[in-house]
Structures are given as structure tokens and as C-alpha cells.
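Now for a typical sample entry:
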Amino acid sequence: MTALVDARVKLAAALAPVADGDPAVLVDLVDALEPPALMIGWGEPWLVPDTACLRTGRLTVIAVAGRLVPGAGVATLESLVDYTLGRLAGDVDPWPLDQVGAPRVFPIGGVSYLAARLTLRVPITGGS
């Protein structure tokens, strides 16, 4: 289980680059990026109560394959999503997958990128 204030950082550590060519991992919203990249944020619903001290949070990983141009963008995105799922499966902490959205246009700083959103269910502790 993870505290709310630690969840994004913990997920970023699970996905942190370990080899040349691994995608950058961004833990905060940005107005520009260099793809491929993984952006971590919160999904909807953000938190759902389970018990008095336990909630289920929805963390998202936005896999950004590249600028939206004709070519092999979808294949690149498929590889990036596969890479992300593999890294999460190999982590010591469980990262249950809720869903993976279809490829779509994702605007950042006036630039259109090809991306997909992976949503994870995360047990969140704390509060009362």
C-alpha cells in the first residue's frame, strides 16, 4: 500500500530508465517533452473509498510515442505500452492494470503527439 503523497514518485521509480534508449519518465505535467516519454498523473476517479483508511487510487501513465505524423507511430506506441507493462510486471510492488486506452492525439504545448493512457489501480493509505 502506498501513501497518497508518495504514489506518483513510487510509480516513477518503477518505470525509471535503466538503459540507454529507455523513455524518460515525467512525474509532473509539462508544456514540452522529447518522445518517447512516460508521463505520470492521476486518473478519474482519483480516489474511491474502500474502508475508513484505505482507498483505491487511479494512477495514469501516458505513453507518448512521438509527434503525430504519418508512418510507424502506432507500432512505436504499441512497443512503448508493451515496455511499460513489462516494467510494471517486473517491479516488486503490484501495479494492477485497470485499462489501456486506444491510441489518440494528445496535445502538449501546441504540439500533437500520438499517445495512449494506461490506468492503474493503486491501494492508497492515509487520511481518516
Summary: Strands lie at 2-3, 24-26, 37-49, 54-67, 97-100, 104-108, 111-125. Residues 73-89 form the longest helix (17 residues).
